[in-house]
Amino acid sequence: MAASPALRVVGPDDGPPAREFARGLLARCSFPVDVAESDVLACAVSGGADSLALLVLATEAGCKPTAYHVDHGLRPGSASEVEIVERAAFALGAEVVSLRVDLAPGPNLEARARAARFAVLPGGVATGHTADDQAETVLINLLRGSSTAGLAGMAAGVRHPILGLRRSETRAVCREAGLEWFEDPSNSEVGPLRNRVRQRLLPDLNELSGRDLVPILCRQADLLGDDEALLDELSLVIDPTVARQLAGAPLPLARRAIRRWLRQAGKTDHPPSAAAVDRVLRVAAGRVLACEVGGGISVRRRAGILVIERTGPRPVQ
């Protein structure tokens, strides 16, 4: 694996004044309310401006944040990044938990690194994703042919408490707090899809439309997220194992019931393909007796009931 560029540390312009700017942003954040003194908010903190701003804002919101830093060991000097996190945490009175994961060279490195990171982080950990990340996620999911769930992007809430802020604002938060941060050198690489969306597609779309599309994409994600939640709730009344119910249900709800059922059967967060869902609908309608849906499982109709059969080994997660 080729060595990655060394990280670039960015320092504050001035000393640490009172954090009035950060406090003014809290109305657009979604930190927990009525936090007890004993409650700890786990925050994923890489040492970048977004995650350090998360730490600052969590403190200003009255939370008791603990910074969880994960070293993937993917670039020279990566171990020193935790020092940036430790200095920031010390200045804010927060605890730090440093974790290490080892990744072998190979394809899908970015996805594998993300999976390894969240495997060691606490469940429900808060992340520093911003509105800019949300807009990029929506575009990426659109390019991948995602359904409404993907186009809804990330849901605002305790998991993503600063999703309503812009990257420029997280850097301003860090400057105001007198914190240094590092710029991940991999963000400037041309290869990863997210980088290409960030560096090329979104700027081109902004120029074409003559406006900043990030707020618009985020607004669309919010609207689609509301629709997604409602349709998911309506689909709960459908038993996807009863062929007659499935075949007689409105198509959008039937598809959701099937996706939920197959995800549970495959024990995965990844939804089945649209083609697989349509094949199950054909089984429910009696057009075919059985179908493959991927992941080593098939669906068969028996006396009006749909059953899942395992046809191969469970895929490695």
In short:
The protein is of the alpha/beta class and 317 residues long. It has helices spanning 20-25, 49-60, 81-92, 109-120, 131-143, 148-151, 167-176, 193-209, 214-235, 243-248, 251-266, 274-284; strands at residues 8-10, 41-44, 65-71, 95-100, 181-183, 290-294, 297-302, 305-310. It folds into 3 domains: 8-130 and 165-188, Rossmann fold (3-Layer(aba) Sandwich); 131-153 and 191-234, no CATH class; 236-310.
What would your notes on this structure say?
- This protein has 3 domains: 8-130 and 165-188, HUPs (Rossmann fold), CATH 3.40.50.620; 131-153 and 191-234, no CATH class; 236-310.
- The protein has 12 helices and 8 strands.
- The protein has helices at 20-25, 49-60, 81-92, 109-120, 131-143, 148-151, 167-176, 193-209, 214-235, 243-248, 251-266, 274-284; strands at residues 8-10, 41-44, 65-71, 95-100, 181-183, 290-294, 297-302, 305-310.
- Strand 3, helix 3 (81-92) and strand 4 form a beta-alpha-beta unit.
- Helix 5 packs across helix 9 and helix 9 crosses helix 11 (251-266).
- The two termini are 23 Å apart.
